[in-house]
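Take a protein:
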Amino acid sequence: MGGAALDRLDRALQLVEFATAVVGGVVIFSVMWVGVAEIFLRRAFNAPLYGQLDLIEQTMATYTLLTISYCYRKAGHIRVEILVGHFKGRNKWIAELMASTAAFGLIVVLLPGILHFFENAYYIGDSTINTQWPTWPSKLVPVVGFSVLAVRIALEMWAYVRLVADPLAEPIAVPVPAPIVEDA
């Protein structure tokens, strides 16, 4: 039931998720060095780095929300396996489908409000207090991050419907947690 198409879409989405995760990683690495520079300048020259706090505030969403879909796909800390891990076969796939449907519903409910915050910041010209940098780029990041996550969860729901119909099919486009020993 659509295994080949599902696999192609999953691979394409993995490229997008990897790219957003790389962007998030580069941003957090850069923020770390900005923090180091700020501490050095403050200690050595008693001259704090202008705009450092505004920069940190503006980039927080980038390294948290752009990476969320990648982490979800890897069965990272976003997933909770306490209940679902006890099921096997078709019951497991039904439980996973129900959890994914609930997560998708939550994203669909949140996304319009997140989009509204972005549009509002863009149209009124919202800016930071100290440096007067526009805030709309940082408010666009959650729209992108949650949109990629919504596509991931929709793809996952398709995969779970496929597995409910045929529990012996190969799991494609579903998070597979690493064994506990390997994860440790």
Notes: Residues 3-183 form one domain.
